[in-house]
Structure formats: structure tokens, C-alpha cells
TrEMBL record:
Its cofactor is Zn(2+). One of its GO terms (molecular function) is metal ion binding. SUPFAM superfamilies: GroES-like, NAD(P)-binding Rossmann-fold domains. Belongs to the zinc-containing alcohol dehydrogenase family. It comes from Boothiomyces macroporosus. Residues 53-156 form the Alcohol dehydrogenase-like N-terminal domain. This is Alcohol dehydrogenase-like N-terminal domain-containing protein. InterPro entries: ADH-like_N, GroES-like_sf, NAD(P)-bd_dom_sf. The keyword Zinc applies. It holds the Pfam family ADH_N. The keyword Nucleotide-binding does not apply. Keywords: Metal-binding, Oxidoreductase, Zinc.
Amino acid sequence: MTELKQADFTALELQADGAFLEANFKYVLVQDGVNIYRNGILHLGLKGDYYIMETIACGICCTDCARPFLPYPLPQIIGHEVVVSVPQSIRKNGSTIGVVEINNSHKSHGSSVPCPYCESGLSSQCPARITMGINSWPGGLAKYIVVPKFNLYQIPTELNLSPNTATLIEPFAAALHGVNTVWKGGKDYAILGAGKLGLLTIAALAISRNRFDHDITITAILRTEKNKEEALLFGANKVIITDGKPIEESFDVVFDTTGSADGLEYATAIAKNEVHLKSTHGQPMLGFKHFTELVVSEISMIPFSQKELDFNCNGSVNANIYVAESVPEEITKLITDTNRNIYQNSTANADNWLENGGGSVLMSEGSKLPRFDLAVCTSAKEVDDIVTPNSSHDRSLVRVRGAILIANPKENSLLEAINSRQIKITTSRCGDFNDAIRVLSQPTSSTLVQNLERLITHQFRLEELPSALDIVSGKQKTEKKLLKVVLTAK
């Protein structure tokens, strides 16, 4: 196979009402980038270094089902768990297939534009990024895909992954990133839910035990017996079947992989220190409108204390802090007594200031990114307004991987639990593909690689996408156990 200079094809696009309609596409490499034509009209021009590649397989996940609820325009070709055929001319060590990281940042396509996010190793959070199958960039559920040069990760031949199984690299990388993010000092770790993400999180915990301070116990908490065997197979030490009822046990850290309000409440009730959340479903939940945006920006919610002003500093200082107008004066004084800078104003005024040069001021005053290092507030509405201060863009007031500190919470059960029980709600999003491939390539991972095949329970052709998505969303019933649905181009 040679490198493609252009590709003409038809693809099914997801519409705002959840239906699919066919559209004609043409991808053309040009001197300084790639042009994407839709129904004969230039749809998107991307600058930088790109490939046009043939899609071999692409998985469907719950984010694809939630795509109509996400704050990005439709129609669009969806899909972001994509495996491509690598042209002979760029193959490394005999690799024939590759996976594609889903965030197209400055770094991805070799841009020379200065970017503090990409330069700080946060390219997945670059404000200029577009996201495969989610924001602007046409996704992998089509015959061809545009691939930023530095987003291509070739699968080593010795890893011996089938194309279908390789679709799990993206969610496994995300699971590993979550495991790397949480507190490592606990002994008891629980995973709530045992769908694909839950099972991959169990696997990531089991294979990363040496990253913890001591040996840990991994407990899978399931509503029914359905995936008990898989939970044990992927590394759980024990399984608890709840039948929808409360349990008396508690755990240092609970990973909530359910994507539901009930799941988050349950996880919070049984967590002693931390609940880790990854779901991006786009729906209001527990009095919050923008929980998905919180997760996308990897922002945590934690109880206010002077100690937590050092949250996730990584050797530096959280120098600049946004304080909501409702926060009492005594808490503001506690912050200023630590010689930090505070900005206390409305979220609208704070956003306007940041967008008109304030971000540069913050960086000159000690912040690594052009956003506040932390925020302090008292209500769910203030959390929403901090995370999404302006509907015209998706930039939070708080930097990515920062935190919102909750002080004197008002009329919200989750915020009250955070403060009264000193529980942290942490979040994470996309992971490092290199890390995932490295971990799976280790000799100790050989059994896990074999077991990954068991997660692929359904396979369809691209033209069967509507039915496949209905199965994943539960609109269409299937007699087989449902874990992972993959679509193939041939």
C-alpha cells in the first residue's frame, strides 16, 4: 500500500436528531495541510503535516452514543477508537497497523505556534485542539480518515494485536491515565461497573500495582452477576454483587465507570477518600449542568482547606486563585495570608478578563497556564459557571488538571458530601498511547493481551453503523453479552 494523496468516499454522518444520513467526502493533501470537502464544498482546511489513511476498524463507545448531547455541531462522522492501515513507506519494524490519538493539537501536526499547553506536556488539553469524531475533525467510522502526523502510533508486530482488539488501545490508555491520576496511598480500590471501561480500569489497576506504595486490593462492584467472570479474569481480587442495594463496605478510592447519576451517588457513599470519574455523557447530573466539561478539562472538586491550596502543584505553586463572590471573607483572608493572588468577581467578568489578556498576566505572576490555578466557590451553579463561563467557547476559568475547592456548600448533596466527609471527586480524560502500548508490550502483560480479545463481542460493517450504535445505546436488544462493538471497513 502506498501513501494516499486524496480519497473520495461516502460516509454515514450522525445528525442532531440521532439519525444517520449519507454524505460525499473528499480528502486532499495540499502543500501546507489537508482540505476536507463535504458534498463538493470545502468543509474544513487543516494546516500542518497530515496523512490520509484507510480505516481498518473502529470501536463504538458511550461517548459516541452521547454525541448529540455534546456541545459541538452536527452532522459529523463519529468514532474515535480507530485502527488504520500503515502505508509501506512509513512502516516501522514491520508494523502494518496503527492507532490514532484523538486530540489534534498544535503538537499533533507540527505547528510552530507557541502553546504553553503543548510545551507543558498537555497537548491533549491544547485549547486549539479539535477532537476526532467529536469536535470538527471527521471521525474513524468511515473508509478513510485524516491523521495528524504525530498522532499515529504504530502497533509493534510482536504485540500480536488483531485490528479489532487494537481498537481498545484508546480506552485502555484512558484507563491507565485514570489509574496514574488517583491517590496511591490507599489499600482498597473499587471499580463501580464492569462494562468495557470498568474492565479495562480493573486491568490497568492490576497491571500497575508496582506504581502504588504497597499491595492493593481490587474490588469490582457489580449490580448483577453478568460480568463477574470477566472482572475476575481482568484482575479483580473480589467481586461484590449489589442487586441495586447499598453495601456496608467502604474503599479508599472508587472508580465510577457507570456514567450515571445513581452511580456517582453510590460511589461517593462508599468512598473514604476519593471518587474518580471519567464519564463524558453530556447530560445534567446531581444538580450540575456541566459535569462532562469538568471531566473533559480534568478538573477536580475537593473540600476547601489551606493544605489543598497546594493541590496538584508538581513542585510549583498555585499562585492565582479565582474566588466566587459568595465565598465568605474569612476564607478569602486565609488564601491571601498564604501570599497568593486572588481574583474575586463574577464568572462573566473573570472570563472577559482572561480572554482579553488576563491569562498572560496570570502567567507573569506564576501560573504555568493562562488560567487560574484553582477556584473556590460554594454552589453547584458556581461550579458550572467556573467550568463553562461562556457558551461561545469551551475554556474553563480554571486550568486543566486544576481544582475547584468547595467552601461552605449550599443546597447540593454532592458538594455537602465533599465537605462533610472530606471526599475528593477527581477526573481524567484521554491517556498516553505510548504508555498503553509500552505496558501491553511487557512480558507480564501477555495474558492481558490475550484476554482483551474477549471484550470484542460484536462486529459489524461500516454500513451497519445505525444498528450497531442502537445496540451500544440499548435501543436495540442483542442476545449476546454486550461488551465491545467494533465496525470494520471490509
